[in-house]
Amino acid sequence: MAITKEEVAKFQNALEDEITTWEWFRYGLRPEDRPYMEKIFTYTRKQAEAGSQGKQIMYTDYLWMATLIAQQKQIETLLLELDALKKSLNL
After folding, report:
1. Distance CA 37, CA 72 (A)
2. What is the pLDDT, as a whole number, of residue 89?
3. Measured between alpha carbons, how far is 2 from 53 in angstroms, rounded to an integer?
4. For the chain, domain boundaries
5. Looking at residue 26, what DSSP letter applies?
6. Most distant CA atoms of the chain, gap in Å
7. Does position 84 have pLDDT exceeding 90, yes or no?
8. Which of 74, 22, 19 shows the shortest CA–CA distance to 48?
9. What per-residue confidence (pLDDT) applies to 78?
């Protein structure tokens, strides 16, 4: 089923509202940890089209799923880089 631009935009607006509700938590973080939270929200925004496909949307659940996907991509990239480094060092 194709998602319209309007549906994605509606989801993005609701997602931004959800992100805003986390401002209290962001404020409580140590300053050096705040950029990590911002990255989580950035990854989540990048996946807005996928999130808009849900029938019953729980925005916080979506936020965490998008984060887990982004982290898994980073883990796999790091593992590939580590394997390449080991090979170059003959380990």
Report:
1. 16
2. 93
3. 9
4. 5-88
5. H
6. 54
7. yes
8. 19
9. 96
